[in-house]
Design goal:
alpha/beta; Arc Repressor Mutant, subunit A; 2 domains; seven-stranded mixed sheet; Rossmann fold
Length: 225
Amino acid sequence: MQIIRALLADDHYIFIEGLKTVLSQSPQYDIKVQGVAHSGDELIEKLQLVKADLVITALNLSGKDGFDVIEHIRQAKIPIRVLVISAYKDPKIIKTAFKLGADGFILKDHPTTELHNAIDQIHAGNTYVGQGIYLNGAKVNGTSKTKIPTRQLNFEDRFLKKYNLTKRELEILGLISRALSNKEIAKELFISDQTVGVHRKNIMRKLGVSNTAGLIKLAYDYSLV
């Protein structure tokens, strides 16, 4: 039986223990859990210390969230598959995860067979979109090559006034919501990535959010992307 080395990340300890049990029952693979993390920062540390073939992660992690982790993995060119398992069903959130580089996305409220199917497909090099997920207005089940479209920015004056954002901060928020990294934003705006980092921190402070997921949710709520 083929061995798959896995890293698990979720902020719920009991869920992690249950996930370990489900993985041990895989009908096709001998899945060896190499480590667990309960925050995004901890997961990134584990990635540097542990050799693994697969990361199974939630999005709602403390510190660096799941989006940040996926972005880190892809920018660092770590050769590892990423499966997101989440309670979030919003197509915008799911599209962002795929745009950043996730290989699969499944929902937490579905049967355990879904997890085994997802692992099988992404281990084979496919993209897996879980049961009950809607993308582009249509329900998508199983293996998919769906591309994540880039949406147009639509700036709202009322958003600027409500949160006291500058036009530059609003511009950067829109680019963050398109899953661009600090370096990519810097290149597009002809500024340094350090300046982008400062803007990002200021935006998060003004909006009262602590991670990228919160920024993206607000951007979509106000039709900024």
